[in-house]
Amino acid sequence: MTLACCLRSRGASVIVADDGAPGSSSRVATGLIHPITGRRIVKTWMADTLIPEARAWYRALEGKTDTSFFRDVEIVEAFTSAGNRNDWSARTGDPAYAPYIKAAIGPGGLGESLLLPLGGVTVQGYHIDTSAYLSAAGHLLGDALVRGTVTGKREWNGMAFGRIIDCTGYLARSNPRFGQVPLVPVKGETLTIQCAGLPEGRVFNAGKHLLPLGGGRWHVGSTFDWRFRHTRPSGAGRAELEEFLDRYVTVPYRVEAHQAAVRPAIDGRRPVIGMHPDHPDIGLFNGLGTKGVLLAPWLAAQFTAHLLDGAPLHPETDIARFYN
Fold this sequence. Notes:
The chain has helices at residues 2-9, 25-28, 47-65, 82-92, 130-141, 235-248, 292-309, and strands at residues 16-18, 32-33, 36-37, 42-43, 70-78, 101-105, 120-128, 145-147, 155-156, 159-160, 164-166, 183-194, 203-205, 209-214, 217-221, 254-266, 272-275, 282-286. It is an alpha+beta fold.
């Protein structure tokens, strides 16, 4: 929907065909923007560009729709080993990371209900309520948002369109036009829990996260499964998440919901956008993986400028890289 809203803001005629599936990765996603990721503790790709773009986009859409779905959050990164602590300490002294890493927290600094045995650091992050965002974007699109799927023909209810953009996530693997694009579906599972005894002011992260939703409710996630046999919530996924909770949470909690979805990841970890080089009426907007809420605004602006102005795409995201 981000791409559609961006195109519409430039005056393009757009129809969004959405099947409204409640288990789509966009609706199940945590919506957490973390500027520092990975085992090597590095800034996420293009963080210094993507984060300001995302903040501006979400704040502007909140204003247009008189809604609230975007918030600044403080993320507590718990040190998980001595080596991990040393890696974070090295980043703390690097000026390039100064806008993001805020302060150190000593062992036990979160109280008795949430264990922090080795200490940690706080990081500036952001959270988007993805369900609220999709509702707001849908409201902005109005009649341009329809329920259904596209069969491949460039028409809808008697209206002809010049292009079709495939935004179907991991399901694009079944589109024969994009067989050369190395999409790698990754299933993820999350829990929503009720736990009144945890400190709600921050997100807690130690390989998996605890994100406060308010009223004693927490989002817990998420798993990574590259060899899944089905897309439903699984006993193994729940057990993995509860093992994380039991390692760090010392007070009782109750599981309210268990969800699963499939992320549209891609081999090489860079998203893919653009029109098919041999079929210029068919395009792709995909491969955003775990960073969809961060990547989508910038990618949508790039693709919109490409479609309407002929601007070049960033070479690391251009679909042409798979067809050269």
